[in-house]
């Protein structure tokens, strides 16, 4: 691989998005630790992923243990579990990067934008954790199912928002490493756009009968 | 042209976005009436546009008169003028389609997402006007400058949101007619995504030093 190897925990790693990100990041050469509330469940999920990868590169642990062992912690849990999951790992986050992939979907109408008061779920997590944790918003607009199918391409750009520019750069590099294109989308408050787009993309998937629409930023190169 | 000729008023038509939309829609064969608070100012702006088009096809009037003469009314004013402009034309909107292109930019930090309470400026206008006016959100993510340069292509998709499906279809057809791609993005609450994206695109324009980034929906066709 090009660039630094990152030690990455995936909290909520047994879900579809967590699984897909773990697979792609591990294949790109990063050191991945799959986390779950139940360490045994994480171990079983990691073993299944390692069979797909053809080698035992993904480690496993409970969420707190995974976060402790990593320098970048990816939160890939449903919106309803976001705050409880953050509290579970909070003590292990100081000085680290927390990549929050949460989109504030409110069942049953997940195809309608319903942003929380204040506008952004992830910005609220940054406010909760304070400046000693660099919170980054990313991966809300990528199809989890497509990430999990290693032989299929994923489509779209990844809007990366954070108040810390170096944290943005490191997460943009992660997106680039798994074959997507990370886009510097500005401060953490701008995460509202990515979070709202998730519901729009769910609407579009149903309306246009496609499996996993994404977004691209047009106009960054002369022919785009 | 293919499809029906629409009679379209552009309220706030002397601004950059209004000018660009008027030019493109008129060139596509629609009947365009440029509106301004000052009818004389609208007349001068329409005359300038007609010189570019090489013929006197764009009419002009005050905002209220323009709205009265049209079946589709496009609101292309700054966020700070949105509500006052709606009040100015309110009596002329019954049974019509109001296309609100407002993005809730809050100077001076227009590259930071600052959605209003409730999440969407345009959804608030639908709530204000009631069900007798079909409010459609569109054109927040298209470069006004590029629209105004008829010899240059504009890039990107247009997210079209409305609670009324037929109104969505008619505005999607307008976007298609001017060489963009209209996307059915769902109910009016989903406008929050397009509104938030405007600030993200302004951030991206500055960060990547490009003149007018837009967005595209990826994955609607097998090769996209």
Describe this entry's structure for a reader.
2 copies of one chain form a homodimer. The first copy, chain A, is α/β, with parallel strands linked by helices. Chain A has helices at 16-27, 39-53, 63-69, 82-89, 121-129, 144-148, 165-177, 191-207; strands at 7-11, 31-36, 59-62, 72-75, 97-100, 134-137, 157-162, 181-186, 214-218. An 8-stranded mixed beta sheet of chain A has the order 3-2-1-4-5-6-7-8, with helices on both faces. The mean pLDDT of chain A is 96. At the A-B interface, strand 8, helix 8 and strand 9 of A face helix 8 and strand 9 of B. Strand 9 (214-218) of chain A pairs antiparallel with strand 9 (214-218) of chain B.
- The tally of helices of chain A reads 8
Mean pLDDT of chain A: 96
Following the backbone from N to C, one meets helices and strands of chain A in this order, namely EHEHEHEHEHEHEHEHE
**Low-confidence runs of chain A:** none
Terminal residue distance of chain A: 27 Å
Return the structural class of chain A.
alpha/beta
- Helix % of chain A is 25-40%
Computed over alpha carbons, the radius of gyration of chain A is 16 Å
The shape of chain A is globular
How much strand content do the residues of chain A show?
Answer: 15-25%
């Amino acid at each position: 691989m090009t660039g630094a190897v990152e030690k990455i925990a995936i909290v909520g790693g047994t879900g579809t998005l967590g699984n897909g990100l773990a697979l792609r990041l591990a294949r790109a050469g990063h050191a991945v630790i799959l986390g779950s509330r139940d360490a045994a469940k994480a171990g079983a999920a990691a073993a299944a992923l390692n069979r797909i990868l053809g080698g035992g590169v993904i480690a496993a642990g409970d969420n707190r243990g995974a976060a402790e062992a990593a320098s970048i912690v990816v939160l890939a849990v449903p919106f309803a579990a976001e705050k409880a999951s953050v509290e579970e790992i909070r003590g292990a986050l100081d000085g680290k990067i927390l990549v929050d992939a949460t989109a504030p979907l409110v069942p049953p109408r997940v195809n309608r934008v319903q942003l929380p008061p204040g506008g952004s779920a992830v910005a609220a997590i940054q406010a909760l954790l304070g400046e000693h944790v660099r919170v980054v918003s990313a991966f809300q607009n990528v199809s989890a199912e497509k990430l999990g199918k290693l032989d299929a391409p994923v489509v779209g750009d990844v809007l990366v928002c954070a108040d810390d520019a170096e944290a943005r750069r490191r997460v943009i590099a992660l997106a680039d490493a798994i074959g997507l294109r990370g886009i510097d989308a500005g401060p953490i408050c701008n995460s509202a756009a990515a979070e709202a787009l998730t519901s729009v993309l769910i609407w579009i998937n149903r309306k246009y009968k496609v499996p996993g629409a994404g977004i691209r930023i047009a106009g960054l190169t002369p022919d785009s």
